[in-house]
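Researcher: I'm preparing a figure for a lab meeting and need a structural model of a single chain. I don't have an experimental structure, so a prediction will have to do for now. The sequence is pasted below. Please return the structure as tokens so I can convert it later.
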Amino acid sequence: MRLSDEVQAVGSLKSVQGVMLRPESSGRISKLGFADGARVVKGQLLVQLDDTLQRAQVQQAEAQASIARTNLQRSRELQAQGFVSQSAVDQNAAAMQVADAQVALAQAQSQRMKVLAPFHGTAGLRAVDVGDYLKDGADIVNIEDLSSMTVQFALPERYIDRLRAGQAVDVAVDALPGKVFKGRVQAVDSQVDANGRALQVLAQVANPGAVLRPGMFARCRSVASSLFSRSWTAPMGARLHSALKRESACGCRGRSRSSKAFAPATSSSPPAMVVCCGVTVCRCA
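Model: Understood. Here is the structure written out token by token.
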């Protein structure tokens, strides 16, 4: 017979990946590349801020880099003919490197006017519209990866030696009664909370059909340990009733070869024990 020590706890669901998108630069929204609640893919353009100034700066930097490259090429040709020194060539080479760095800087500033999807997921409800002026760090929309969920719950510290990564977890949510979602323990916290003496556990749960959503109340159940017992002990009342029933059926009445004669218990003698059908029974007056 297998004896299991089940533990139960409650927690809240979170997506395996989730982020609130915010711009790195201030600007006015010129284009939105997603719809509320739609699927997005990694690298997809979600928000385009007005980058007219940044694109002009890129063009200016590229033109300066082109001039610097031409000057370097010309100085190298003149050096080969002996008309300029090596130091002049080195100065032009350094000027070209500065120009290339200016191009990279202008391109980076232009790229910061775009907000891209960091991973595959589902968009929430946007908090902005085309034409809005955004400051850097303002909320745009949340992106959630609903392919699987995580749930964090607390258990008493006495379970610390019975929890392991990979252990099975069953999760149920009140919003979907009767459904159980399978998961595994992903990690166990490295420390116990000194205030409540609780151990934090993080589990990952499968989310077929993306029916689970972040923020749902979850009830978690896991088997902390499982022991196998070779024998099963029945309650005393059940054994006594079974023995008396077999004694009556076989008609031995405690006088068989495997039993002792019945004698009422007195204050000076212990209760008589009768062995009937392989079961020892206490016969008390």
